[in-house]
Records
---
Amino acid sequence: MLAWGADANRHAPELQTHSRTGERIDQVTFHPSWHALLALLRSQQLQALPFAEPRAGAWMARTAGYFLQAQVESGSLCPTTMTFASIPVLRKETALFADLAPRLYAKDHDARDLPWREKTAIMIGMGMTEKQGGSDVRANTTVARPAHGEGRGAECLLTGHKWFFSAPMCDAHLVVARMGAEDGPLSCFFVPRFRDDGSKNSIQIQRLKDKLGNRSNSSSEVEFRETSGILIGEEGRGIPTIIEMATSTRLDCVIGSAAILRAAYVQALHHTRHRSAFGRLLADQPLMRNVLADLALESEAATLLMMELSHAFEHADTDPLAAAWKRVVTPAAKFWVCKRTIEATGEAMEVWGGNGYVEEARWPASIAKRPSIRSGKAPATSCAWTCCARSSARPMTRRACCRTCRAAPPRIRPCARNWLRCRRCCANPRNNSRPTPGASRRGSC
Ligand SMILES: Cc1cc2nc3c(=O)[nH]c(=O)nc-3n(C[C@H](O)[C@H](O)[C@H](O)COP(=O)(O)OP(=O)(O)OC[C@H]3O[C@@H](n4cnc5c(N)ncnc54)[C@H](O)[C@@H]3O)c2cc1C
């Protein structure tokens, strides 16, 4: 597996925009190791496990598998994560999802460049970021013009561009565009690589990004020219729709970074147990022991946070407190673990001495590949945190939450109907009606 990872990064993907005879084909070709890595990820269903087999512990099992894979190679996690994160959004589109589900849940990797309905397994990406802004999705200018039908499920034609469009060989992307005009409401679209008639959809790949960090995964710049897309979610609710996808990608940023932290710690430990300096193994030198202890703490703390977060994702649908925890802690955990990963991999690089500074040592790439910029860099993640904390915590305060008896926050509990109330009110059947509007309802971001 390590050799696959090394090969997939040494032999970067290549873009071919046109065929021999001049037709646009927009194909990206990869080293066979890339496909071997994706096949391995799929065989463990890391792109769908808790949705495909929703049983107790499924989120944890998926987290553990992802955590292991991320210690080997990170690029292949990008399309895996995006596919995973698209499922909660797509399954709200009942008719479309009936056809998508078996292909999203499939345990094989189907690399063929064919319309998604002709494939056994598919992958999904996301397209939000444009040249003029990524954190601020409201700056999007891509326009969608209605073609067939109206409302949810209608076919529209998209014209515009995306400046970061990772894994363009995905079978479809969820794309944000403005409905009707450049100042129209932002909406979200399912944009497949091929149209329903089997012809190639007009997603023109301009070039692949020359990125820092992992080179195995392709990130592209694309233009849409009357590109067919299906409206998903409510018209004008494009940001909440795509943010639901982005929230799940943030969980994977935490797992991926915790994995890099662990790899850094384990490799530092191994190196110091075999390298001598000044008459002793490095691992026995008092100052080095401090460094190793710090790395161990960082790694364990990140791993614990990752597991707690996965637990919250698993229980968010049934436990309002887990839902609140998920909302508030996800951006904070992403901010913190990604930041600490930079520090820890830098430390591990130093532990390896001069050998840590060559590309073969993995550290230069590890420092660059920690997924902090994806799904919002630090300040933007902080804004997301503030927004979630404000909306989730507000109902917990005495005045806003339980006006009936003015209970103190520690006694506030979610009641059976998902309203936050104090225990005394919950226990009293007369108080089991809807609380004062706007006063007690759990906030939403
Ligand atoms: C490897 C990689 C792959 C990617 N793949 C995709 C993809 O597949 N699809 C996709 O849509 N995008 C993708 N992106 C783009 C990514 O989502 C954006 O780069 C990210 O959202 C930041 O947007 P931006 O680059 O426009 O920076 P900006 O939005 O211009 O932000 C610049 C800086 O300002 C900060 N900032 C923003 N708002 C505020 C504020 N209110 N207050 C204070 N500071 C603020 C940001 O945190 C950041 O530090 C990818 C990026 C990378 C690096």
---
Amino acid sequence: MELRRTRAIKRSYRESDDDDDDRGDKKKETERDVSLLSYAERLQPIADKGLCGDAELEEEVAAVDEKARQVARLIAGSKYCVVLTGAGISTAEPASISDFRGPNGVWTCEKEGRTVPPSPRSMDDAKPTRTHEAIARLVTRGLVAHVVTQNIDALHLRAKMDVTAVPRARLSEVHGTAYALFCVACAVETRLAHMVDSIGLRPVAAVCRTCRAPLCDRLCDWDSPLPDGEINRAISELKKADLLLVVGSSMRIRPVGLWPRYTLKAGGKLVVINLQNTHLDKKSHVRIFAKSDQVFDGIMDELDFEEPTALNPPELNTRATNQIPEPVKNI
Ligand SMILES: [Zn+2]
């Protein structure tokens, strides 16, 4: 069962497998009302957050356009393309969710004693960016087989008026999500319309409508085991990929930052689209230093996408009810 792993895989910013000594003093959840806090504020403090505020580089427009055309050709010619996304795809409008280690990222500002620039909206009101839209269209068109995301904002699953969302079955949320609850007994997932008021895979005041067992949040904290089903599927998909696009991630977070090696080891090609350096830049077939929206605009132009005319069928997002489970006391 997902929450009963004996060797839980957890996140770390370090190469070492020993993640027990890189945390600072923990605050007890009982001391804080987490419902009032952002995701970053909810996370337990850790002493070492790794490199923050690394320089962001942007290539000339013409170079980005040429590389975007090259990536489009790679996508069109691939047999099994997988996309791995990070916080960098959610920083642009109309999402405007802070990343962690960019120049104004949460960890960078914390390290420099600055206040994080305020977002114009809450995470609940964030909308998918052009990158989210493009990825969803590529999945719908059958050009991308699977999406692995480190993001907990569920923006891959949120459709806009004229754009399909990524079907849940084609998405692995490897750090969990702020927009679902999970039944520890029957493994049914209930999607939420609003950010969950909890973190750390803890029971919430609700029970499963299928089996009446307690529901837990799916929002991983530093010491939470990563969700088995999600990470096993993600690794399986990355091994199958003959083309992997890493988008908006500096790949500094472990273990997910190491997973592109599964694709490389299996002979697949790697494309990295990110403003900051990554440890796999030299292994990449195409490396683009640019904002992801700019690159995906170019990719979609090259692939000559027509505008979709219909919303995605609701059944594609299996188990995505967007309904808050009925509350129950004494859990
Ligand atoms: Zn259940």
---
Amino acid sequence: MNKKSKKFTKKHPVWTGIIIFLVFVFIINLFSSNNQEQPKENKLIKELKISTEDDFSMTNKLHWDHMPLTYIIKDNANCGDLQINKMLEALEILENKTSYVKFIKSNSSSADLIIQCVDVGAVQESYFEEIERLKKDKLNCIEKSYNYKKDSISTYTEGILNKSEQLFINASKKKYLDSNTIWVICYINISDISYENIENYGIDDWKDISNTVLGDARQITEGNIITGGKINLYKPENGWSVCTDFPAKEMHELLHILGFGHVEEPYFDPYYGYVDLEPVKDIMFPYSYCTLQKTIQQKYISCLNYIYSNGKIGFCSEEVNFLNSGILCFYGWYPTRDNQDCCPEPNMEFVNGYCRY
Ligand SMILES: [Zn+2]
């Protein structure tokens, strides 16, 4: 045994004591921390959350996690009695036909469903006022020279202006020579357009007021849970248009808000029209036909009953289509390629207030 080992052996009992003590303290801590309230409480909160987050967990389809849903109809002055009454009629029919779908009128802007009427003419007017203001205060002009006689100029396709950043205002010839033609191109920066005025109208973006869009329904989703919905109804210049017998367009939008998607369009014969009228009668047909769409089909009622009874009654048949997510478009309108706006034809894009291919 060498000196070093001997020394170690001598001190060994002391070190062993300290180590055993530390291990003991560590185990006690570990043991007691496992028995503290905190983790138990967390587990309880977690369990509680699971059971309160989704009242209708029996379904994996797109759905709201609670009933009744609160709704608010904003900008009543813009809506007019005709449109408001049709919307209320649709809400009432849906409540009466289903067993568990219920709506409660609210005065809060944080209601589940926000229905708002927008006077397109008034909003457009304030948009044009804003553009006029910018034409005076924030107009940018650039010169571009061409070495030939040029009659017209296309600023976006020629790449002079960027559609998403600059709004073309005008272009004019400044100097006109056979050898050198100078054009002055004026534009405003889209980032300069103030959103202050449109806030009064409760819409999100200037592009919502494009006179080509009559209305839309949008929803916020988290996974398969719908957490918010908004129906924008744009009042066209010639006034509201509603179906007299049945609130078809309002019911269509409401069913979108409840998660349903469109039915597929049958073949349209240019001479004989739709070859099969059954899908056209469906309330979720993408186009409005007041004379054909006069009820909400049983398959939607049954599916709503299934979801909102949490599986007690009804069933969702395969004939019922659900939305994936993203934008919901008004009757006869389709989501754009980026799924952010609505246009009159499928697969278009929405740029500077216009639907384009
Ligand atoms: Zn639709």
